[in-house]
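Margin note: ligand = fructose -6-phosphate.
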Amino acid sequence: TLGGYSDFMSKEIAEQPEAIERLLKGRLGEHGIEMDELDMTDEDLARIDRIYIVACGTSYHVGLIAKTMIEHWAKVFVSVEYASEFNYSDVLVTDHTLCVIVTQSGETADTLSAARRLKGMGCKVFAITNVLGSSAARESDGTLYIQAGPEVAVASTKAYTAQMVAGALLALRLALACGQMTRAEVEKVFRELEKVPDAIREVFRRSWQDKQAVPLFRDAQSALYLGRGTSSTTAYEGALKMKEIAYVHAEAYPAGEMKHGPIALIQPGFPVLAVVPADHVHDKTVSNIMESKARGARIVAVATDGDEQVANLADHVLWVPQMDEYVVPIVAVVHLQMLARYVALAKGLDVDKPRNLAKSVTVE
Ligand code: F6R
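Resulting structure:
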């Protein structure tokens, strides 16, 4: 039931802090990250030399963030695959390849086929899912339930952020097992993850910033979403939300790719949304904002509190608290969920049931 909310999407957006708190609870143990669900020993984990993460849609974007985290913290090579492509392409497994499937519903046909294929090749399959007893859970060797509660709105919100936290826990567990991080280093990152729920609550208090940006998108035919590093994924996910519920053609690009083609789209008034938190690639993205602005783009930026440079360049800023750059995507995306919802509402659309879409895609 809606319990006072006007739509399921707003309810599920609001449930994100509690979902993440539930998922983190009891995960930091004496020896590191508690994840019995993996059903693998440290020795098994230390042998993993390649990981395939397979998923669709929003869950695929979780895979992109998980890759960044696993490669940065655990130093294990990760390939992220669209399940629908993976099933018809060559797969290069080693004796110690791990397969991770990410699927909120646990019933996405392409994702399940990919898992079966990898299992058939001798890989261990680990599932990150929301639905208890789903096919993904039944068919995998281990399952991490994100426990986000039922997600009813077609556009995934709370499953996205909770699945990213699950990805972070897996990355930290691996990093310890592989000897790439100490217990103290893992604890430091874990404490950053624990700041996420309150940071998201703070973003909720700033929803007026998203409302103010609505006019830039409401009548737009098209928009560009840009980001680098961990923020490129936030741009992909934000653009997907804008497309699927507000029907604005939003295209996401790694910011540095803009001058290899998409910059030709920019004309005076064209909306460009740049995800540019304080991180090691911040200044590079700022120069892409300048290039867009010089061609007349209207700029909406997601930036870190206190960033005056971005404040001076952008037409609107969606502010996020200061966070670790590997953790900030879990917070920054919340602005983009709210922005897409407000644009859809301004257009009189049903945010819970966008046209042509089903909650779970059970055909290939
Ligand atoms: C987008 C969305 C879809 C799903 C995709 C995979 O908001 O909800 O892109 O993420 O259909 O679904 P699951 O995670 O259930 O496998």
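The mean pLDDT is 96.
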